[in-house]
Every structure is written in structure tokens, then in C-alpha cells.
Description:
nine-stranded mixed sheet; four-stranded antiparallel sheet; binds uracil; alpha+beta; 7 helices; 3 domains; Alpha-Beta Plaits; about 240 residues
Amino acid sequence: MERLQKVLAHDGVASRRQSEKLIMSGRVRVNGTVVTELGTKVGVHDKIVVDGVPVTTEAPVYIMLYKPRRIISTANDEKGRKTVVDLVEGIPQRIYPVGRLDYDTAGLLLLTNDGELANRLTHPKYEVEKTYIAKVNGIPSNEAMKALRQGMTVDGETYAPAKGKIVSVDDKKKTAIVSLAIHEGKNHQVKKMLDAVGLPVEKLKREQYGFLTLKGLNAGESRHLKPEEVKELRRLTGLI
Ligand code: URA
């Protein structure tokens, strides 16, 4: 048996705090009866309904995908294009990506049906470090690397300091490989930060998500997270 607000959060209805508000405002029924008591415990056979909509409890599933370029990160595409979810086969549960990678960005993407963990992983308070490898146009100057490490404001959007390293430089082609580790997940953040220091991104890949790496996977391949990996993500986001 679990506390009702925990079950609602886990099933992705709302955050735990918002779920408590839903319960207290009388919008949640358990087996047909409105429940406003926060301590209420529910089991797998209890029928939970929020605003008349049944909440389905599925076995949680956690997948790591090596997203290839030219695939969109949303669960559904109105234009009917193939999505990251289409790449993960044989999962009966409805899973969705944790955050997004751009259409032309490759790399590590998590997919899950665990709404609470997904919410926490993308919440600024808990956001884990994500490491990107970028091929950039131009040779990074010391000033550029310093600016990345100090953080910056671009078009009114503030980006926190990043850990930036030059991996290699091609003097002939005037390109470089730069590694950038960030905690936030703002729209096009890595491209915008590098662009702002005069290093437009030609190619981008997310190599690491917290302690998780793409080791053993090729582009388009996926695997289930190991129980200890899920536990570590739960620990990092304050769920245990
Ligand atoms: N930053 C970007 O610019 N693009 C991504 O896909 C991820 C981070």
C-alpha cells in the first residue's frame, strides 16, 4: 500500500505537491468515494479517478536510448514522423522522453512511464549534470572557454556556468571538438551558449546523463536501466 499522493505523482498525474492539492480540493475518488485525507493508503486494486478520469497504474519502466540524429524527441508527432518512442520496441507501457534532444542532436535520452522521477529529473532543483560533445566551427579562445565557465545571458535567457573543455582542434579546417557539461535543460542551451562565444555548433551529441553513459549502445539502440541505476537516479532526485 502507498500513500495516495505518491501514487498520483508516480503515475504522472501531477507533482506530489500538486497531487496533495488535488486530493484536498476533493477532486480525487478512490473506489467511487471522494477522498480528501492526505494519509490515505491505496493498493494496486483500488480504482483511482481524478476529475472523472481513471488513473492507470502500470509497472514502471526505465529505458536508455541512444537517440540518432533526425528523430524527434516528443512522444507523438502531429506530422506522423517517427519519434524516439517508435525506436523502443516491445514495451507495452506508454513511455515518454525525459526532457528533449533537438531533432539534429544525437545521444543519451531516458524514456519512462514514471512521471514522478521524470518530473524531478527535469526540475531545476534536481537537474543532473548532462555532458555534451560538440563539433564547432572555429578555434575556441581562452576567453570563449572562460565565458562558458562563467555562465552568460543570451537574448534575455540566463545560463548557469558550464564545465567546458577543449577535446581537440583541427587547425586546417578551423574546427574543434568541445565538451560542455551543464545542469540546466533550457531550449537549445548548448548551441546557444557556444554560438554566443563565436563557436557555432555543427554537430551535437549528449554523451552522459549524470552517471549514465552510452557505453555498449549504437545509435538507435536502447536498453533497460539496471535496478541499481534506477535507484541511483531516485537517490539523486531525493526520492529515496
Ligand atoms: N542543447 C542543445 O542545444 N540541443 C540539445 O539537443 C540539447 C542541449
